[in-house]
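Sample intake sheet
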Amino acid sequence: MTPPPTTRSRLVPMQPRDPHEPGRTASTLELFFDLVFVVAVSVAAAHLHHALSEKHVAEGLLSYGMVFFAIWWAWMNFTWFATSFATDDWLYRVLTIVQMGGVLVLAAGVEPVFADRDFTVVVIGYVVMRVAMIAQWLRASRSGGVSRQAALRYAGGIAVVQVLWLTTLAMSGTVVVVAWCVFVLAELAVPVVAERRGQTPWHPHHITERYGLFTLILLGESLLASANAIFEALHEHEDLGPLIALSVLTLVVTAALWWIYFWPPHHTAITSMARSIRYGYMHYFVFAAAGAFSAGVEVQIDSITHHTELSEVAASYTVTIPIAIFVLGIWWIALRENADRVVNVVVPLGAVLVLLDPLIPVPFALTALFMALIVVVLVLRPPVQPAAAD
């Protein structure tokens, strides 16, 4: 294949990528980019775990939800940009690495958010990431062709919202939370407005592969929690059996979540702008639930070793609620349109039953059983051809 033309400064014109480009897969830069999000997600999940174990449930969930939005939105925006305009030249790489630096700054600011509701470092790291994205969109507008206006609307919209975020540095208390909610809505509105006329192209297989890879990162956090149960068991000999059982059951549930997520062909879920928005935005709940699940497993370890102020029932809910949200989210955005009537009954019903598990004597064991049964049904009932896009 003929290499793309370059300028004297060794830059490649940032033209829209072919949405039907054969063999399009995640690049090594995109995989490198994802690595820093492992750090950010891990830090957020760790602080959620401590907040829940110390019985600061409402405060912990609020802080986690706010911080996770910043992580998810920055990741998602770059992912959709890259599927449309990725050019592997030095400037594209440098701006991507700048965004990675912003993620690391954001991760450093997670603890002050949970401890003192201080968003200063998080906002600074977030704005660094978004300013780099503004530069990417402005560059894309120069050679964007029919997508030029959309690229300019993205750049302008992101810039306006970043000014709003900076105003939170002068706020405190409840005002910050209210402003955060308003500015989140503004962020969510930018793609809707930008794509209204002159849409950017997206590669369905590439974009859904990127979502799948990020899901694997989040599920990896749960596997780490499973390993932590074994590590803890080596130090808590009296609780050796329950901790090892928890580790095994966590592996079963994590594997089931992986199986459920990758059962349907996700690329069929983004065949129109409306469906793409639904797919992209609803993944916030799926991703946040996956991260919270790993925190819940850590809370369960604390419960077994008597290091938490939560009751056993409350500790169980820190695991079952994230599982149910994850399963229901994937069922809604990707699975139900590829499933027959049996699967569309079993999957949401299984998620609901998981929510009831904490009320019985062996909650996590039954949760693992329900998840395994869902997988058995998916094996026996393969995906069907989805209906025409709405």
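Comment: Residues 28-194 form one domain. The chain has two domains: 28-194, 204-380.
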